[in-house]
Known about the structure:
CATH class of chain B: Mainly Alpha
Mean pLDDT of chain B: 81
Number of domains of chain A: 2
Helix content of chain B: 55-70%
Oligomer: heterodimer
Low-confidence stretches of chain B: 1-11
Low-confidence stretches of chain A: none
Largest sheet of chain B: none
CATH architecture of chain B: Orthogonal Bundle
Mean pLDDT of chain A: 83
Structural class of chain B: mainly alpha
Distance between the termini of chain B: 11 Å
CATH topology of the largest domain in chain A: MetI-like fold
Amino acid sequence: MTYVVQRLIQAVLVTFILSLTTFGLLYGVKDPARILAGPDATAQDIVRLRQTLGLNEPLPVQYGKWLGRATTGDFGRSLFTDEPVFDVIRPRIRYTLQLTFSALVLALTLGLFLGIQASLRRGSWIDVVANMLATAGQAVPNFWLGLMLIILFAVQLRWLPVAGSGGWKHLVLPTLTLASGLLPVIMRLTRSSMLDVLSQDYVRTARAKGVSERQVTVKHALRNALNPIITVVGLQVGALLGGAVVTESVFAWPGLGQLAVQSITQGDVPIVQGIVLLTALSVVIFNLMSDLLIGLVDPRVRYG
Amino acid sequence: MADVTVSSPETAPRKPVSFFRQLRRYPSALVGGVMLVAILAVTLLAPVLFGQDPMLQDIMARMRPPSWYAGGDPNHLLGTDQVGRDTLARVLYGGRTDLFVAGLTVLLSGSFGITMGLIAGYVGGRVDYWISTLIYAVWSFPTILLALVIVAVLGAGLPNLILALVITSWAPFARLVRSQTVALREREFVEAANALGAPTRRILFRHLMPNLMSSILVIATNEFGHVLLSAAALSFLGLGVPPEIPSWGGMLNEARNYLLGMAWMAVIPGVAIFVTVLSVNLIGDGLRDLLDPRIRNN
C-alpha cells in the first residue's frame, strides 16, 4: 500500500515540475506580446497587449492563474487563430493515439514473438536474424526509414499513399516507421530477460516434473520475464511520443506531433504549452500504471 | 576462467593488456571499432583528402546523380544537390558537425548525469528523492519535443542545440549511476574510505566512480547513438544544426522535397547516419558482452 502512495506522491511532484517547466520555458524566456503584435508593432502596441494578456503581473501570479485554468483544460487561445487551444488540440489527439497505439501493438507482438523465439532457439538462424535486425533497427534514423519507405512503396511501387490520412493504407508506413525504434528494444529485452529466467532453478524443476515445454515457456518463464519488459515499455512511451512528432512530420499525419512542430516554428506559445503538458502528463500516467502493474504482477516490488 | 571480472566491484582493476586480448573474442566490438575509426578518419581528414568545398554551388552541375549512374559526373562521385553542391563533400563535412555535436553532448550530459547519480546514490535520503524525481520528470517529456521547444525558445545555433540535447539526455546516466551507487554504498571499501576521513567528493569520484566505469562506458556508447539520431531528427525538422552548416539531418531536410527525382539525396546522408550509429552500437554491444560475466562464462 505504501508503495502505491509513494509512487502517487512522486507522480504529483513530477506533474508539478512538468507544469512549471512548461510554463517557464515559454513565458519566462519569450515575450508572447511581441510575437502576437508582429514585426510592425510599435512599443505602445506591445505595452497595451501586455496589459490585456496579463503579462505585467508577477510571474508566480501568472503561473498560478495559468495552472488554475490549465487544470480545467483551458490553455488559453492560439496566438494566431484566436481559437481556444483545447479546440485546436482535441481533433489531433485521435490521430496520435491511432498511430502510437498501432506502433506499440506492432512492436510488442513482433518484439515479444521474436524475442521469445530467439531465446528458445539460441544460436539458431532465427536468433541470428532477429539480432541482426535489432542491431540494424536501433541504428536507423526513423525519419529516414520513413523517407525510404515512401520512395519504395509510394513512389516506386505505388502501393501506398505518400502521406496524409484517410483509410488504413495511410496508417501502414507511419506505423512501420514509428515501430522501428521500439521493436528492437522490446525484442532484445525479451530475449535477454527470457534467457535469464530460463536458466533459473524453478524452470528446471518445472521441466523435471514433466511440465510441457509450452507451459514452461508461457507460465513459468514468460510471466517472470515480463517484469523488466513492462518497466522498459513504460519508460519508452516518452520516446515513442517523441518519435511520433518526427514521424507525423514525415508523413503529414495530422496528429499532435505535426501540430507541435508547426506551432513551435510559428511561435504559437499556448498551443505548444498545451501539447507539451498533455503529452508529458500522459507519459507520467503511463509510467505510473506500468509501475503499479508490476507491483500487481510481482509482490517482491511492493515490499522490496 | 582465471581473469578478473570488471563488473564485480571489489576486485582489482583489470589490466589493459587483458582487456584488449579479450576484445578479440568479441567481433562486434572489433568490427564497430574499425568502422568508427574509419568514419572518424575520413570525416576529420575530409579537407585534406577531398579538395571539394561543401558550400560551393555549381549551378551548371546541379542535380547530378552519383557518378556510376547515367548522366553522372566523374567530378562528383556521389552526385550534387539542387544547387550543385557536391554530395560527398557535404556528407563528410556534415559528419564532422554531427560527430562533434553528439560527442560534446555525451561528454557534457555524461558528466552532469554521473555527478547527479553519484550524489543521489551516495547521499541518499531527501537529496536522492529530489534528484530521482527530477530524473523522472525529465524522462516524462517526449525527448524530441522538449529539445525542439528548448531550441525554439533559445534560438537556433550549435551551442543551443547542444544545450537542448544535454538537458534531454543526462537522465539515463544519472539513473544508472544512482542505482549502482546505492548498491556499492554499503561496501567495505567505501566504509573504509569514509572511516579514514576521505571527503565525500573524493569518495564519489575516486572510490565509487572507477567501479562504475564499465557500465558508464556501455551507456555512453548507447547514448552517443541516441543523441546522434536526435540531433539528426531536429536538423531534419529544421530546428537543429542551422542550414548554413552542413549536417546529415539538414541534408535530409532538403532532400525530402526531391524524393521523386533525386532519391540519392535522401539515401546517402541516411546511410551515413546509419553506419555511424551502427558502429557505435556494435562497440557498445561488444563491451556489454565483454563486461557481463554471465554472458561471458557461457
